[in-house]
Structures are given as structure tokens and as C-alpha cells.
């Protein structure tokens, strides 16, 4: 979400979520922690167990995805990175006022200007769904103007838009699970819980979910569903990763920064985004592979391109 650089001096207030016993998904329990030489094979074996052999396209995608390593998005953009998503063949980057499509190596395929403020997004059935706020974020009086804009993933052409005004403090992130969409967003500094707004595939409002997370700076920025868990990236110093089950019950709270993007890859690993802005020049984005970790929630995965 949009915020002045001066706001970064605001410290994340330590909440009760740090005191809970973390529960990691089965991928971690199977031994995938990112510091074993055979991690890729373990991950592939895990996926093999989850999917039947009569689904060769998916398994082929997994094998190809194993080649994906840390990636830098080509180009410099006027505003900072808000989120990433992938279809396994391309990566999609939301830079607030620019929507960008690259290949898995970060090479630019196409980009389009978009309304301010485009936030985090998700890929589903050939389309990109972007959380958009045209009003004020984090306003206690709810002066947001929350939408979900939909784009054709091939062309980045807008195909539709849906009002999601139930997202009271401003839509900033979105994820998908079982065909329904879940929108997250802003939060005033006096509120000690976060909210997730559920919509069906026609964007008819279904339910407001509550996460007993304690206060997180400006709410939740990014969201993805992976390994039977929701992974939520939050701003702060330190930045915070919230992990919940599918019903939004807290499973862990960690000092890990995925507030600029978090996304699952077909092989079970995740992409965690980062970004940098330089005055009078612009902003860049990158993504690193991460795996579940018992102590830190996620751990950056060392690839062959790392020193």
C-alpha cells in the first residue's frame, strides 16, 4: 500500500502472535528446509505424491519450474512493487501504477499503465485479479474505494472490474482458494486484529473473516494460499509474516519480509518479492525462492546462482 517514506520509522508493535507455538505445513515436516543439497528432489517427490501420474502437463510444469531461480524484474518504474504472481510460465509484477509481465528470468514481455493504487494480485484461470484502492487507505472512517480489477494474463488488457466496498480500510492484496477470492487491506493503528473479505467467483460478498493477529502496520499487504496455509505479508520494522490455517486461525507470526509479494510455485516452493526505490530514478523489483522454515516461517532458498 502507498505510504510516505517517513512512515517507515513507525515500529511494528509486538503483538501476542509472537508468543504462539508455530505449526509448519507438511512440506517442512518432510524435511524441506532449504539447506539440504537434495531439496529440489525432495520437493519434486512431495509433489509427485500429491498428484497422480495421469496429470503429465502438471508434472512437466513442476519439472520445468525446478529450473526457476532468483529473478530480477527488467525495468525501472515510477512507484514501488506491491505484489507478484505467476502462472508457472510468466511472472506478473504490480508496481502500483504499472502492471508488468516478464518471463521466468525477469525479461520484460509487456507492461501497461494502470490506475493508482494497484496492489497485490493473484493469477486464476488465465486472468490476473488485482486489489485496487482509489480512495484513502487506513482511514478509521472508511473513506476507501475498494475494487478488484481483472486483466487477461496474455495481453494485460483489462477485462472487468468489481466493487468490493466491504473492504472498509482499502483493498491492498488478494489471494484465491477453492475458486473463491479473499481480499485483504489497510488497518488503522488502533485496531488489534486483521480482516479478510471473502467473495465468490462472481465477486458476491460471502463473509468477513477475523485474524487474531494483533496490530500490524497498515494491515496486510500480500496474500497467497499454499500448503494448506494462508501466508500474509505485512509492513513494519521488522516486517511480519502471518501464517493461518484455511479458516484464518493463527498458526504462526514471524519476522520475515514478504510484504512486497508472496506466491507459491508449482513445485511447492514460494517466491518472496523485494524492491528498492531511488529518488529521481524509480523503483525496481526482484523475487527470491523461499521454503517453509520452523523458526522464521520462511527461509530464502539458496540457488545455483547464489554466491
Write up what this structure looks like.
The chain is mainly beta and 307 residues long. The protein has one domain: 5 Propeller (Tachylectin-2, Chain A), CATH 2.115.10. 8% of the residues lie in helices and 45% in strands. It has helices at residues 26-29, 39-50, 56-65; strands at residues 71-72, 83-86, 90-94, 96-103, 108-124, 127-133, 146-152, 158-163, 171-177, 180-185, 194-199, 205-211, 217-226, 229-235, 240-245, 250-254, 262-264, 270-278, 282-293, 297-300. Strands 2-3-4-5-6-7-8 form a 7-stranded antiparallel β-sheet, with no helix packed on it. Strands 1, 17, 18, 19 and 20 form a 5-stranded antiparallel β-sheet that branches. The chain has a 4-stranded antiparallel β-sheet with strand order 9-10-11-12, with no helix packed on it.
Strand arrangement in the largest pleated sheet: 2-3-4-5-6-7-8
Radius of gyration: 18 Å
For the sheet with most strands, the description reads: 7 strands, antiparallel
- The fold-level CATH name is Tachylectin-2, Chain A
- What's the CATH class label? Mainly Beta
CATH architecture: 5 Propeller
**Total domain count:** 1
Question: What fraction of residues sit in β-strands?
Answer: 35-45%
Task: Give the secondary structure arrangement, pairings included.
Elements: H1 26-29, H2 39-50, H3 56-65, E1 71-72, E2 83-86, E3 90-94, E4 96-103, E5 108-124, E6 127-133, E7 146-152, E8 158-163, E9 171-177, E10 180-185, E11 194-199, E12 205-211, E13 217-226, E14 229-235, E15 240-245, E16 250-254, E17 262-264, E18 270-278, E19 282-293, E20 297-300
Keywords: Signal
Signal peptide: 1-19
